[in-house]
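Lab notes, practical 5.
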Amino acid sequence: MVADEISRMPKAVGRLLTGLAKFATSQLLAITTPDPEQKTTPIWGYWQACEAAITDGTPYPAGWWPMIYGLDPDDQASDPTVWAKAHPGLGVIVDPTQLQLAAQTMLNTGDPVQIAEFETQLACRYHEIATTDIDLAVLERQMVDCDWDRLRGSPAVIAIDLSRGGYGSQLDLTALTIMVVDGGIIRARNVCWWAGTDIALDEKRCKNPLQVWIEAGHLRRMPGEWQDMSIVEAEIEHLMALYDVRKIGVDPHPAQARDIRRWQDRGWPIVAVDQSIRTMAPAWKLWGDLLKSKQLCYQVDPVLATGLNNVRLIRDNVGNTRPVKGRSAGNMDVIVSGNMAALLMEHHQVRESTGLSTSSCPIG
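Output from the prediction step:
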């Protein structure tokens, strides 16, 4: 059997492996270039194991014999001297003149989509910008552990992307982001909860290492099938006791109306932040600007990094960009709560002017 571009065959991989298991003499030639969706497809586990074996010099996974060609992470995609790493047939079946023309045309556009196309299809390496206009490396650079005790009493905002998750196709986190002023920068950390009684099944369905995150303290597990709002409320109260929380942003979805009204009755500084493109487009841009300009630092958080990898972007007819989950099987709730918190921090001037444009989005 021959499967070309197998990373784009999410439904075929299982059948191919079933066929291999039925007949001892069966063989599969799996061929693919990198793809923005590759980490959410069934072939990724095998692909990743093969890459790790090559890198570590350990035995290949049983039954697999990998050959991987592509530019190294530090190579410049525009450098002709490294192209042979991605094209062992360069000069024989691949015309270097055509490759040079593609590089000059696509890499010089400044268009993230064109750059990503060259990086994945011709440089043959995974490229984060193919899925979002914020490179994962930028976020990872801004993940720095912090002594949060010294920030007690500092101005802060909280944003929550609430979920009733844990049932059916509703495999969502409830994500809370707190942002605290630390001099000229903003410190952020997340609290995430997962609801569901079968964590192993949920892992398979959402393709995230939930149990690993839980054991490492990056994800908290709700006691049952539903999100327990009393647990979320207790965490908000705890954070309000530690920091000077000026605003608490919540999506004003009808399903959350009773909780929001109860919090308002308690005197909490609740702000409705709807998740339409009108609100989330400036929030996404501001969040990205803060990261890129090194004004926003997160606590180390693999849930957040995975969330960014799950983001897809949609644009309206005037160019506003909003993050959505799209075809990804993963979760991006923690990205949404971070965007909301950044918007609250800047729009309500919780810290001194940063030099970045504040959002004109009419919230609060």
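Observations recorded by the TA: The first strand starts at residue 2 and ends at 4. The chain has three domains: 2-56, 80-130, 137-347.
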